[in-house]
Amino acid sequence: MQPSVRRELMDEINWNDRLIGIKGSRGVGKTTFLLDYAREYFGADNKKCLYVNLNHFYFTARTLVDFADEFQRNGGEVLLIDQVFKYSDWSKELRYCYDHFPNLRIVFSGSSVMRLKEENPDLAGKVVSYNLRGFSFREFLNMMTGNNFPSYSFAELIQHHRQIAEDISNQVNPLDYFQDYMHHGFYPFFREKRNFSENLLKTMNMMLEVDVLYIKQIEQSYLPKLRKLLYLLAVYGPGSPNVSQLSKEIETSRATVMNYIKYLADARLVNILYPRGESFPKKPSKVYLYNSNLMYPICPVEEVNKNVARESFFFNQLQKDNEVNAGIKNAHFLVNQSYHFRIEDNMKFNIHEIIFRLHLEKQSYDKAVNDIKNVFNLMRIQFQRVQEAMRQIRRNALSYSVDEYEEVLVGNLNTITDTKKKFQEYKTVIQERVKDLEEENINIRKLSKKEQQDLNNLRVIEEYLTRVLDEHQKILNSHFDLKILYTEELERLSQARLIQRFSMRRDLYDKVLKQADTLENMDMFLRPLFNRNPEKIYNLNKAFSYEKSVNAGMEKDTEEEVDFDEEAFRREKEEKLQKKLLVYEKSLQYLLEKASVTGEVSLGQLKDRLDIYPEEKEIFIPNVDVFKEIMVELIRNRTIDIATLKKERREYIQEQPDGFQLNEMILKLVEEQPENNDITSIEVERLENEEAITFSEIKDEENRRKTIRCSNVLIRLFRK
User: Fold this and answer.
1) What is the pLDDT of residues 159-172, one digit of tens each?
2) Last residue of a domain, one of 343, 373, 391
């Protein structure tokens, strides 16, 4: 059986070397890697290559040297040794095998904590070591999609990123798999039929108990301190670690804390980010968890900082073949001493926008529909984030940091500046394409099925582009509101600190007790506490001023007195909206009921029925505007798929409707009315060759009687 994912390290190793060490953290697949090598290079039944685990009880009674000697005398060529650190004197015996069995090649695996050359002088100059990492996002994407995307160097990505992005997005949307990778894609054992989080927690504890304590020969009693330190580093985030505070928390010295952080880094539990030119034992700039997967078992999902997770992902992916240091000013990272990177909060938005543009260029409109929906969803999230920031500021401006304020502010400005013009241009292009297709359909020829689907998708894209641009404006408005609110709240708090306060005991009671006659001045002391009416002074000029009539004065007063109840107004507005929507709902429900009888119904058939039962006319056609809006929306949509509507409601943030929304109301009628529960889709067809239908004596909103003349339309229901 061939391995599902061929690790890139397989081609990086020079397998002709006589002593090869494969290091890696627990759970990254070292054992599988050794077995894959045996399978690929020797086959399942070739006895020239042998895999052994030194943790087997067999090696408690027999030495590795004796075993290797017997193996090579029987024709063995390659010995694959797993769990080498569980065997005492393993380095000395490997050195003996290297010196005395020249025809034997040995490949062994060990923990990432092991320092093969520094701590094992027997192997110095003999062993060639490699690091096996967890799945890269590329490997995860290949495994999940069945593709074979090649790896690219950092220099290639910098130079050809646009072409690389186009090549990948033409085959798959990487963002569909990105969050899964962030949650569980780094460790290969996610494919096992076990609870991943529980399995990862066990692996993390094994890293501490075995890879750190056992190999570093640290007493078991220090394990709780290591576990607590890892937890605190995860919870506090990737800021510069407060070594003094951490030493108090875990009750140990500052030097020990730094050593523990280094042990956690060796075990591939954390990543240490240093300024350029610095390294251990200097204080790091930031400490990240080694990969984003480790964040989720430690912190609740809702508390995981998504931007921190993306920073951790960036650091993890680039550190393999690049020098990564702390950035300066607003940058998070400095790569290869030349490139500064900042992981923006709207990174996901920008990627979706790029993919949307690529799909438009390729005329893959069905894919572009999902892209623009994702863009709109992210815009809504951005707007909601600003609203949440404003709520926090109103509660307590001092609890909202300047860094948080700047992050939201800069993020909004970047989003608006970089994308609004682009989406306006997209909308113009889409509108022109829609116009071309519609004109071709009317004047030249009937569109093919593919062209009709493209037209429908383009209309959906146009609608969502309009909504995206509306969200842009909302974000812009909220950006200024946030700025004004934060400034005013800080000014108010600053002024409050300048208010002079008095002590009642010191400035009043004590003085009164010492000298009772001070009570005469009590009025002066208490005056600021009360709103006293000003003293009335006769103004002589009033005697010579023009005197208005009493009635005129009363009229003026009446005009100026306004009692406005905001809550009552809002409630009244909501009641009016609900009454209006109920009219639409009754009309649509009537239409569905009549179509349910035979599975379809036309306006012509409904006209014949209304002539017989005129009392039903006000239900189906309550007024001109309602009927017109319903029919236009039905004809425009043509096909209404109930499953698609439910999916959109689950996956995308929807605006609260402030008017009639056909899809929303159809979905409501299907879900809330038992007789409609089995409807799967609704098709609307304009009957071009039939006579127009006329409805007379229909009221408009001003209660005037009018006649409606419209094309005959067929409404067809499909059920389970």
Assistant:
1) 888 788 888 888 88
2) 343
